Amino acid sequence: MKYVYILESLRSLHFYVGITDYLRARLAKHNAGEVPHTSKFGPWRLKTYVAFSNAKQAVAFERYLKSASGRAFAKKRL
What is the DSSP string of 5-62? Predict the structure, then answer.
């Protein structure tokens, strides 16, 4: 399974969209400061995630969520 996830910072108004095979382990890495892009905005909480059995669909959905229209969709619906 591939997971597309949205994290929400507990200290600021930042959000982060990512993709992983192991959701719990990836969240632990974000909160441990092991991911350079998210280390300065932690701690993080999992806002939402979507599981995909097809890797191509997961990558396409992650790319969409990182676009302007995808960010608007996530803010309104997720």
Answer: EEEEESSSS-EEEEEES-HHHHHHHHHTT-STTTGGG--EEEEEEEEES-HHHHHHHH
